[in-house]
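Can't attach files on this board, so I'm pasting raw text. These are the components:
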Amino acid sequence: MRQASRNRIVVHVIELDALTKRYGGTTAVDGLTCTVRPGRVTGFLGPNGAGKSTTLRMVLGLHAPSSGTVTVAGRVFGSLPRGLRHVGALLDAADVHGGLSAVGHLWALARGNRIPRSRVGEVLDEVGLSSVGKRRIGGFSLGMKQRLGIATALLGDPPVLLFDEPFNGLDPEGVLWVRGLFGRLAAEGRTVFVSSHLMSEMENTAEHLVVIGRGRLIADESLTAFSARSAGRRVVVRTPEAARLAGVLAAAGAVVTPSGEETLTVTGMGLERVGELAFEYSVPLRELSGHGASLEAAFMELTAASVEYLAGDRR
Amino acid sequence: MSTTVTEGRFTDLLASEWIRIRSLRSVAWAIGLSGLLVVVMNIGAALTDHVKWFDYGESVRAGFFPHWSIDAAFSQGAMMVSFLAVSAIGAVLVASEYGTGMIRTTFAAVPARRTLMAAKLLVTAALFTVWGAIVATVSFFGSQWILSWHDVGVPITHPGALRVVTASALLAPLAALVGMGLATLLRHVASSIVAAVGLLLLAPALINSRQGWLIHVDNAFPMTAWMRLSDLSTDVPPPYLGLPGAWTVNAVWTTVAVALATVAVRRDP
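---
Top answer:
Structure tokens for the assembled complex are below.
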């Protein structure tokens, strides 16, 4: 099968097939199967410790999978002699040698991959670090290191790009810039795979989402499909006759939880229906509001069962 | 494979490593200063002989040439500083890359880890061969020129003199490779340096070589090999290390260090 894929036109997809990584007794990544496609930004979402970084490291051949496979354009990345022209990656902005200048760092990497010197200046311009190119990386802020990491990823003009938590340490202007850059890279037909533990970062960035929790695939769908999932749409209703309304709504099939002396939180029933029922039974209302679950809420709900480290969790 | 040619040859990796080493200012300083220190120690030894020349007894002065003269060409202190400084620099070059996480960036750029490590070893060994050659040559000619003021300078044509210079020069690439091999295994700056210094300096110094079978253990260390090679006497009785044995010890340590680095680099960072 792999033989056949080589003869086809090379499609720069990242293919995970039952990818698994175990460390001693713990399973960091558990049978992950999905395909990351070109031409769009794919968000890689999951709570802290879900196995995002481990997965990305396996894509890059830095960690060997315990079982399963991961290929980029049909080939195992670790078997390539040089990497920069195939996959550009920013795993951790701190993965640099502080003693080198930005130019020295990029030039050494470029030279090993036979990338011309002129490319170093181009990527530094792209990320806005031209003026500090000669300065030691050790003195860079996290945001500057993040930009340098992005420059490193762009160095080989690769068809596939991986970014692990690229928004960390960026100011709002930087976040906007990165979003624009990712969109442009995807529009150029590249495969862009961006991890994050914050749904809000993905809302205006990704078109497609791969969501994992405790190493397992939870969702692999478009952002639109994902937000449509947002079950748990809540209706908040305030009335002096809370007990009577609660009975009426419950009888009509809603789940009602009192959230104050006069306030009820209703799920499983639309705002309009709650209003109709109140009118029908002549219950005076003081407030009726719908709280459509945000993407963040949808994400939290989906991954709640798989959160590795909960605040207040007894360990 | 055609992609190998367009994406980068082995020489490109050598160039890449050279750019890296050259750009690390602290390493450049360490290399320069340690080289200067070794030269100063040897020239200083010769100058001490010069200053104290007439304090030495008649018999000392008469028997000075060539064995005591050659001691100043590369002193034991200079050997120790070379081992210490160069193995530490070799260890730092590799361990700092692991310690900072830079190694992940490097491996993502060059997934062929063993080829990459081969390039690192070759560039560093070449650099320290040049370093060793300069340091040993300057030390030899400088010290022997000073001693020639008292007509006890050893010429390079003297039997064994070239061997002393060669063996002293080769201390450096050997130490660098041992440091790099241990750092690839241990991946931590401090522990790699301790391990390198322990193996190159401490262990042979602690072994009492006058005792039976321990002589054979002592013979297996590069420090012992250098002692033998930097001595002008042509033969020593077994079980002490002979000249071919001493060269063999150096060759074996070099091979093992290279093998250690190329095998240990396969372990995931």
